[in-house]
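ARCHIVE CARD
Drawer: 12
Card no.: 0347
Subject: one protein chain, sequence and derived structure
Cross-reference: see card 0346
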Amino acid sequence: MKKYDVIVIGSGMAGMTIANKCAKKGLKTAVTDSRPYGGTCALRGCDPKKILVGAAEIIDRANKMSGTGISGGVFINWQALMAYKNEFVSKMPQGVEKGYEKAGVEMYHGAASFESESTVRIGKELLEGDKIVIATGARPVILDIPGGDLPIDSTDFLNLEKLPNHITFIGGGYIAMEFAHIAARAGSKVTIFHRGKRPLENFDEDIVTHLVDATRALEIDLHLETEVVGIEEDDDQFKVITKSPNSTETHLTNLVVNAAGRVPELDGVNLEKANIASNKKGIKVNEYLQSESNAAVYAAGDAADSNGLNLTPVAVMEGHAVAANIIRGNSKKPDYFEMPSAVFTLPTLAAVGMTEEQAKVSEIEHQVKSGSTSNWYNAKRINESTYAYKVIWDKDGHILGAHIIGPHAEEMINLFAMAIRAKLKVADIRKMVYSYPSMGSDIGSMV
């Protein structure tokens, strides 16, 4: 049996941060992953997705400017785009391994399962750890319907060799909306089935309404309050059976993508053997991200039931907190004060802080300013018809939340996040001098 000060299960951004920091502080550290090192974001999530989004942005911009000085057709060569994406992604595991080697982290490749409260098995190897970290990330939910095993998942979509004529997405979250916008601009017909009343239910309702309108304007067939209850394979296509309040229908499609959500990837880890309490949100942890039931265990990222959003920067932040608590003892609590997020549809939707609904429920005295800004210069100059905002602040002028849909919303939201972090007041934001013409220069007029 090999003994370590720290064993990290999972090599995504949280696990990578913890393993490298602990090893650099002199702790004997091991890491393992059942997949190539790098994690979801770098290999099968945000990074490869954004490469595809970048291509879709060019199509979107060219289409919107067509007839206003731009002429000539532009299209996506899917195979060439995939090759470019694959070249980028394929380099990541080797780079991660070099980082581990430099830090002195011992590397394993395989799924880990607990044998006791302080030991894990990786293949034929049995490892004992003074501290063990679970940073296994998340996986797609399993569709508990007839034919639920027939759809591909988000990883498969990012590796498609060619796009079919028609794609159906199940779900109305990040993955469905982002991939639908990519596929539509790459030339596929797209249908989305979502069982809720609106997609992206955790985002501000009014801002999401603008996205729904933009999605339908793209001729994406978006069905709300419609649940997929079965899938059948029929030669080279699929039958998707749906149920809505008024009917049950069958739809034909060439490809079905499971985008119904993600859950902590804890299958096969044998948490019960290590007395590790968990629920559907992940490992139950205290304010230091330490297991509530096994003090030798910590969890970070999507595998932890914490107050953090399932976002890469949050996983990194939690990784830093766990590493500090292992190295120095429990002393660092993760800071969730502001967590900006973006949905990389076209146009992009971005948010930070409270929604208007959350502000009302909290009973905080607040003020809201919102509106469509499609007639502002920054929308007009690129012929963008979808551009809107909503900003919420308290009675003292401190920003409680900001919500934007439009070009470069993912960048603009970072300025609002900094305003929340720095506790700037609305008056401070209005008085700032911004570079012009820039998207950021609109912020002063949004408060």
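Annotation on reverse: The mean pLDDT is 97. Residues 368 and 392 are 5 Å apart (CA to CA).
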